[in-house]
Amino acid sequence: MDVSGQIKQLSWDNADWNLFWSQPRQQCEVYAYCGAFGTCNQNSLPFCDCLPGFKHKSENDWNLKDYSGGCVREMNLQCGNNSTNSNARGDKFSMSSYMSLPDNALSMTVGNAGECESVCLNNCSCTAYAYDGNQCSLWNGELLNLQQLSQGDVLFLAIIMAVIWRRRRQTVGSSKPVEGSLVAFAYKDLQNATKNFSDKLGGGGFGSVFKGTLPDSTVVAVKKLESISQGEKQFRTEVSTIGTIQHLNLVRLRGFCSEGVKKLLVYDYMENSSLDSHLFRANESKVLEWKTRYEIALGVARGLSYLHEKCRDCIIHCDIKPENILLDAEFCPKVADFGLAKLVGRDFSRVLTTMRGTRGYLAPEWISGVAITAKADVYSYGMMLFELVSGRRNAENSEDGKVKFFPALAARVTVDGGDVLGLLDPVLDGNANVEEVLKVCKVACWCIQDDENTRPPMGQVVQILEGLMDVNLPPIPRSLQVFVESDEHIIFFTDSSSADQSSQTKSYTSSASAHSKTSTSSAN
């Protein structure tokens, strides 16, 4: 193992060492060889240099040819500076062409390059972006593995860096920009924007939501939070954390208000309301075709996967249900209310004594008294999938007065190889891809397994729905077996563990490669 970071094989010819094999073959392929914000050029010596606007973090280390410390900005960004001086600088971007792009990009679809730039500029964590057609790639934090390519290389892309100046933001009334992308609204401004909170869009466990219009004609949704006991500083810190999280399938937080006990959050307004309004009130809305429902299932899975697996700290939603899935003008799903469980002071490191969430979507562990993990969201997501298929609530009263529990029927049909199209929302008249319907039902059954260790992580759910992984037949959850074996339907659980579950396994088979398929199985 050489100091270059390469594994090398050399031969001794009685005079010198001769290199005959190395891995990686080229110096610039060594991971993070030039450190953060350093660029590597295979055709120059030294290999490493700093991006424009950056300098060596340690001049002594670079003189000793140790570039791992990377580079730092010559001048700090103005992001987060609350100055309203009209002469203040604003951050801008500089372009670096013919670059191989770094890893860990966040991708989203935007209308143009300007929109891509704006998304990055309005996020203090965003340090660079690249735009290709309608695809916007964003990078947060340090940039690693930047490689300078020549014009003759087949692959050449431009990465655009946030450098020195940030444009001055417009203010709304007495509202002030904080933490880069968030605006601290005055309560009176939101009171005026919502016409004294007169147009109520809905409500839930965290508070009520009202429609509002800002002075620049931007339509927003304003949520008045309830039962918030946090102090000013802690609330602002938590909100700022949520505000830096941006994903195509997460509702964007625009700002907040914190004046004493008055705690409000300001979100983008979603033109097509929430998913429940289209599933359970069909007479009042447009019928969701199966293709749209499948895309909604996939989009929600991507949003939850990002919260669980891609954020610096895992964010557990705690209340996944159709009411918290909002739809934009193109029916792209946006997970709403993420992070609010943290805002109300939930501590998931210890057993929870008070349930958070909605009955019918609660995982068994909420009642059994064990610590809550991201798998509680997976369970709720599975229950929501069943409603996406059937177009009705999972638990309904039948004509004979009994409670019908749709997941039990769906699990039986799925496992026994029955007519899955018969499970579909009647308004679809059977117009759906039968393989997709079966896949969604299988995923839903896996997600609601009693043992959380048997449920798949949301990242795997995304791969399954994208067609990158196959999904095997799931076992019928023990809590549903009583429904399958009898006509009695019990909705709530009192125990989430049983020795009988030890025979259940989980199995996912990868089909992303034609050369290898893998499967994993673990006992509960």
Automatic annotation (TrEMBL):
Region described as Disordered: 497-524
Keywords assigned: ATP-binding, Disulfide bond, Kinase, Membrane, Nucleotide-binding, Signal, Transferase, Transmembrane, Transmembrane helix
Domain of life: Eukaryota
Keyword Transmembrane helix applies: yes
One Pfam family it belongs to: PAN_2
Record protein name field: G-type lectin S-receptor-like serine/threonine-protein kinase
Subcellular locations according to the entry: Membrane
Gene Ontology BP term (one): recognition of pollen
Domain spans labelled Apple: 79-162
Positions that bind ATP: 224
Membrane topology: Single-pass membrane protein
Location, primary (coarse class): membrane
SMART domains referenced in this protein's UniProt entry, alphabetically: PAN_AP (SM00473), S_TKc (SM00220)
GO CC terms: membrane
GO molecular function, one term: protein kinase activity
Record bears the keyword Transport: no
Stretches assigned to the Protein kinase domain: 195-469
